[in-house]
Design goal:
This protein has two domains: 233 residues, Periplasmic binding protein-like II (D-Maltodextrin-Binding Protein, domain 2); 94 residues, 3-Layer(aba) Sandwich (D-Maltodextrin-Binding Protein, domain 2), CATH 3.40.190. The chain is built from 16 helices and eleven strands. It has a six-stranded mixed β-sheet with strand order 2-1-3-10-4-11, sandwiched between helices. A five-stranded mixed β-sheet has the order 7-6-8-5-9, with helices on both faces. Helix 3 packs across helix 12, helix 8 packs parallel to helix 9 and helix 12 crosses helix 13. It is globular.
């Protein structure tokens, strides 16, 4: 994929992002805390973009349930998105203040389109899939492969192709959003796909014999796949209080999640109106850290190493032209408080 094509894909996402955010805002909800301290604090509105799965919504669910938003002077309005690039595009409008993204969308902060305020978790949710009868990527040569552009699934596909000595030109790559990719695979209209859980759980109901050809875990020695919370580039400098309060919410919810996995699964299922069994399966592909551990990993430069490694892969894939210093887009002092 050329860098010019990546820019065209980003521009193409603009109208979709605005439309999704505007429609979602009509049905988004908030929940206030009832505790005395929380009720006494004045609240500021904050529009939060999320993805409707465990990684993308667990901290929002916990913050609601435990009254963490109000304790930090914030009142959330939730905006759902289907992928990170759409959420980042919406950051440039009045529709969203902060948003969750997976690792596949981190090329956008690296290219100056957003800044990271907090690391969420490490994911092993992505897969390259094939219909029954295809047992390798080589078997898919010349076939249609559905790919949501700029996502973590897209990122994993690039890694898998490089490992097998293949190129995108060896396949008929069809760019489509995630729900369309799921529908096309289920209908047999495409032979392969680059997707992630829980979407794959949905696919397995109609395609129980599908093949998983590659996963994040195959590349764990080379790359780490962090999800994160982002805001518009420069937002923390303009609105330091909002950044500080949001990170405080994230840290408190993160530590609750780390220590109370079962309760977090139940809260997230309720928040998303999904089954707890589905949430439990999704939680199994996330590596969690305490906030203190993430502060330590930040101070030691480990998070910068993760972000540099991802950028090297993005350069190889043509999504960005050079590796940027992570300090330019990871607002580490916002997270560490130092």
């Amino acid at each position: 994929m050329s860098n010019a094509l990546s820019r065209r894909n980003f521009v193409h996402l603009s109208a979709s992002a605005a439309a999704i955010a505007m429609l979602a805002a009509c049905s988004s909800g908030t929940k206030d805390a009832a505790s005395g301290d929380a009720a006494a604090k004045p609240t500021s509105p904050i529009k939060v973009g999320y993805i409707a799965d465990y990684n993308g919504a667990a901290l929002m669910a916990v913050a609601d349930q435990e009254g963490i938003w109000a304790k930090n002077g914030l009142k959330p309005e939730y905006i759902p998105f289907t992928n990170g690039p759409l959420a980042i595009q919406a950051l440039g409008t009045s529709n969203v203040d902060v948003a969750y993204i997976g690792s596949g969308a981190l090329w956008l902060p690296a290219s100056g389109k957003a800044e990271i305020w907090a690391i969420n978790s490490i994911s092993n949710a992505d897969r390259v899939l094939a219909q029954s009868g295809f047992n390798s990527l080589a078997d898919l040569k010349g076939k249609k492969v559905g790919v949501p552009a700029g996502t973590s699934g897209d990122q994993l596909l690039d890694l898998a192709l490089k490992r097998e000595g293949l190129k995108r030109e060896d396949f008929e790559i069809v760019t489509m959003d995630a729900p369309t990719t799921v529908a096309a695979f289920a209908a047999g209209q495409i032979d392969g796909a680059a997707l992630w859980y829980p979407l794959i759980d949905t696919l397995k109901k109609s395609k129980p014999d599908l093949k998983e050809l590659a996963s994040n875990e195959d590349f764990v020695d080379e790359l780490t796949f962090p999800s994160s919370f982002v805001a518009q580039a420069g937002r923390s400098a303009k609105d330091g209080a909002l950044a500080k309060n949001f990170v405080a919410v994230v840290k408190a919810a993160n530590d609750y999640r780390h220590d109370n996995q079962d309760k977090t699964i139940a809260a997230t299922a309720k928040f998303l109106k999904l089954k707890e069994a589905d949430m439990k399966a999704q939680a199994s592909v996330a590596k969690l850290f305490t906030s203190a551990e993430l502060v330590d990993l930040t101070n030691k430069g480990t998070v910068d190493t993760w972000l540099k490694g991802l950028q090297e892969q993005f350069v190889a894939a043509g999504k960005i032209t050079e590796v940027a210093d992570p300090k330019k887009f990871y607002m580490s002092t916002v997270y560490t408080g130092s």
